[in-house]
């Protein structure tokens, strides 16, 4: 149910150039109940800006956001300049881009800060008692200096053998000095093509969850549909600035 929240900023960190992680504490006496993949609406100067929750839905006393600070971005600039300990006003949670309750294998395609709801879904999934499906994440970023959340996903993969991820760096020509097991050059759809070559039946029968900019989502949706994945197994959300 959508509620109004007056929350306090308790941590903020620049985790990559212009990419910030924020944590907000829910006031004592309140909790937040949401489904992984949902978003909150930040109130700024009488306007609302939508930001997906990046933390697990098992956490009820706080929530995390991952936000890119963009020139002229009303919400992102407000958050970047919000001091620790200050209060912000949100409405939520809302949204239907959520993990389906099925036993199908799941493939997540995320670009940029579109990783926020995907991170929430994956962490929430592995917090359940039953999590036997194969989970694959392909995370598209520009280059190594813009890479973030690597350690978090690596730790999750060590703890859960059925979780596999690759960081796809579209502007890099080589990854020989990185942990090659987890990194690939090129775009997300290039590595998805590699997967098809060895696991076509598994890939085509999986559920797909896609999040990123409008251009990236539309391109990846079309690519996945052309593989023969039914439309009812493709779920997506485009982020806004």
Helix and strand topology:
Blueprint: E1 3-16, E2 19-25, E3 39-44, E4 47-52, E5 62-68, H1 74-80, E6 87-94, E7 106-111, H2 115-126, E8 135-141, H3 150-159, E9 163-169, E10 183-185, H4 188-204, E11 207-212, H5 214-226, E12 234-238
Parallel strand pairs: 7-8, 7-11, 8-9, 9-10, 11-12
Antiparallel strand pairs: 1-2, 1-6, 2-5, 3-4, 3-6
Your description of this structure?
The protein is α/β, with parallel strands linked by helices. It has two domains: 3-94, Translation factors (Elongation Factor Tu (Ef-tu), domain 3, Beta Barrel), CATH 2.40.30; 106-238, Rossmann fold, CATH 3.40.50.80. It is built from five helices and twelve strands. Strand 7 (106-111), helix 2 and strand 8 (135-141) form a beta-alpha-beta unit.
How would you characterize the largest beta sheet?
A: 6 strands, antiparallel
Report the top-level CATH class of the largest domain: Alpha Beta
Order of helices and strands: EEEEEHEEHEHEEHEHE
Which structural class do the helices and strands define? alpha/beta
In helices, the fraction of residues equals: 10-25%
Strand content: 25-35%
At the fold tier of CATH, the topology name of the largest domain is Rossmann fold
Features:
about 240 residues; alpha/beta; Elongation Factor Tu (Ef-tu), domain 3; Rossmann fold; 6-stranded antiparallel sheet; 6-stranded parallel sheet; globular
């Amino acid at each position: 149910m959508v509620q109004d929240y007056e929350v306090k900023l308790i941590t903020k960190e620049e985790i990559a150039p212009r990419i910030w992680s924020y944590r907000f504490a829910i006031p004592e006496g309140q909790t937040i109940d949401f489904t992984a993949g949902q978003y909150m609406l930040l109130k700024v100067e009488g306007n609302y800006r939508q930001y997906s929750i990046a933390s697990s839905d098992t956490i009820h006393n706080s929530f995390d956001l991952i936000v890119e600070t963009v020139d002229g971005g009303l919400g992102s600039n407000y958050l970047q300049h919000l001091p620790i300990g200050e209060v912000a006003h949100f409405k939520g949670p809302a949204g239907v881009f959520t993990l389906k309750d099925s036993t199908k294998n799941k493939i997540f395609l995320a670009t940029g800060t579109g990783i926020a709801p995907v991170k929430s879904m994956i962490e929430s999934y592995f917090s359940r008692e039953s999590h036997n499906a194969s989970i694959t994440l392909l995370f598209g970023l520009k280059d190594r200096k813009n890479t973030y959340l690597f350690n978090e996903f690596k730790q999750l993969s060590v703890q859960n053998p059925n979780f596999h991820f690759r960081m796809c760096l579209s502007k890099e020509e080589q990854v020989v000095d990185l942990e090659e097991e987890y990194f690939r050059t090129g775009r997300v759809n290039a590595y998805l093509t590699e997967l098809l070559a060895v696991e076509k039946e598994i890939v085509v029968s999986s559920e797909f969850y896609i999040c990123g900019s409008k251009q990236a989502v539309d391109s990846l949706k079309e690519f996945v549909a052309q593989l023969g994945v039914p439309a009812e197994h493709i779920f997506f959300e485009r982020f806004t600035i």
